[in-house]
Prior knowledge:
Strand order of the largest sheet: 2-3-1-4
Shape: globular
CATH architecture: 2-Layer Sandwich
Distance between the termini: 18 Å
CATH class: Alpha Beta
CATH topology: Alpha-Beta Plaits
Largest sheet: 4 strands, antiparallel
Helix content: 25-40%
Number of domains: 1
Order of helices and strands: EHEEHEH
Radius of gyration: 13 Å
Structural class: alpha+beta
Amino acid sequence: MQSTLVCYDIADPKRLRKVASICEDFGYRKQKSVFLVRLSATDTVRLRSRLYEAIDLTHDQVLFIPVCVACLAKIEALGQPTDPPAATDIVMVV
């Protein structure tokens, strides 16, 4: 499974809620517009497909940033703390 940060900037509040809901199905919210997801190749395709259908390609943006295991262990937070990712984290997709 590949760990990825999914970050988005969505122009419309209705689409924003839809994108957040989709991301919640696949991963864990780290910040308001940032999710950490751990996905198989199949789930990666499913997530991208659902997001592609939900956004306006001319006004919105979704970034997929791969994160290696060593990098996950080095995540730091200033201000509000973030929960460190656990190797045993699982993602349930409904």
